[in-house]
């Protein structure tokens, strides 16, 4: 993936926002977002996983019907939604204490497609919430780190959309497999630690419900 001047400008914007929120210790941002506050967000927004679950279900249906390229696109979208909308969005929202500004800041901070620019934030958050180094997660022992595999799927998704790249059934299945493991290894452990699980259609419920 190339690193464009636009990417550099966005990175500087994120760094600037971080300095303003936490001028001395940027890393404290995730530590301050306690499990209790994150759980409260999920309980107040039980449908936060629904778009990702819908995209994932659509990817599987498309593959089953021989629409490989479309299946890959939806699998990549599901992965991005699992990471950004279902994990990063609640954290960023919770860091903005002024409720009237929260949606605006969240939309601005997470407006770019893809998720690798948020890798450091994801890694810190996951370590705090699940006690695991994100970089150690792999779909298989011999595979690339899970987020790197997911990033490769995003690149292929972009080639499909913008260049008409053809996708094989194996590539589409790989995209679905990666999305599955992003949920199982990244999102699910966080939810379990918060006493939450997902019901039909991705709607969140408490484990004691």
What would your notes on this structure say?
Helix 4 (50-64) runs antiparallel to helix 9 and helix 5 packs across helix 8. The longest helix has 28 residues, at 68-95. The protein is globular, with a radius of gyration of 17 Å. The protein is built from 9 helices and 2 strands. Helix content is 67%, strand content 3%. The protein has one domain. With 209 residues, the chain is mainly α. It has helices at residues 5-21, 28-32, 35-44, 50-64, 68-95, 99-109, 119-130, 146-163, 169-193, and strands spanning 196-198, 204-206. The chain has a two-stranded antiparallel sheet with strand order 1-2. The model has no long low-confidence stretch (mean pLDDT 81). The chain starts with a helix and ends with a strand.
Summed up, what is this model?
This protein has helices spanning 5-21, 28-32, 35-44, 50-64, 68-95, 99-109, 119-130, 146-163, 169-193, and strands spanning 196-198, 204-206. It is mostly helical and 209 residues long.
